[in-house]
Amino acid sequence: MRLALLLVFFLCAPVFAAQEVEIIELRHRVVEDVLPVLTPLLEPGGVLSGMNGHLVVRTSPANLQELRKVLAVIDRPPRQLVIRVSQSRDAVVRQREVDVSGRVRIGEGVDIVRPGAPMPGGIGAEIHGGGSSASVYGRDTRRSTQSGADQFVRVMDGSEAFISIGRSLAVPFRRVAAGPGGVTVSQGVVYVDVGQGFSAVPRLTGDHVSIEISPFSDSTVNHGLDVETQRLSTTVMGRLGEWIELGGSAQQGREDTGELTGVASKGTRDTRSVWLLVEEER
What we know:
By secondary structure, this protein is mainly beta.
């Protein structure tokens, strides 16, 4: 095979006395990674090609020595990395309620009644006098939910990594369509993937890393009837071994209701964040 390559070189290209042909075996990198780096360094009149893990070079001895020096730097084992992604969510719901009930006597045998009942988990007070009574109950509740996912994957420098952990939900559907032949009804089940994970491509430059990354996080709500999704896609650069904040979101809401004998308010806060850490595995 090596002899055949040499013959093709000599038959298809003019022979220069000051040039020589050499076949170089790559140890760690593939031809596609090496050619774009070495080709610009080739002197005019030189030829560089490769296949099956070998480079075929025809150039001057001085230029060949320069190419070998560069190749010694780039033809090294790819560095192995560990990519860690942390996705967290903090949701808070606070609800306040005040309710008034009782019986007010405004005349002989005339009462105004507003029925009520104690609130579970609330506090209240009752007032009696003059044939009238009143009860006041209030409740202040706060519910906090924290969730998160910490995932990691090992990958070689320049390669693509992907990880996903979750489950598939069976979602029934029913479709009604009207056509020339009348109304047709079809039904079945589709599966929706719900989970957390990310895809990433890291590229090292010294002790810095540039990484294209797309984390995602799904969760079910409304007793599994709906799916909330979170998607992020970005390219960032940072130092190895340091946490990088990729992004996040914060949502707040408030709802107030009131009537003659009571008021209620509800406030929500939903905060999410995504962090990244890239380490070299030695």
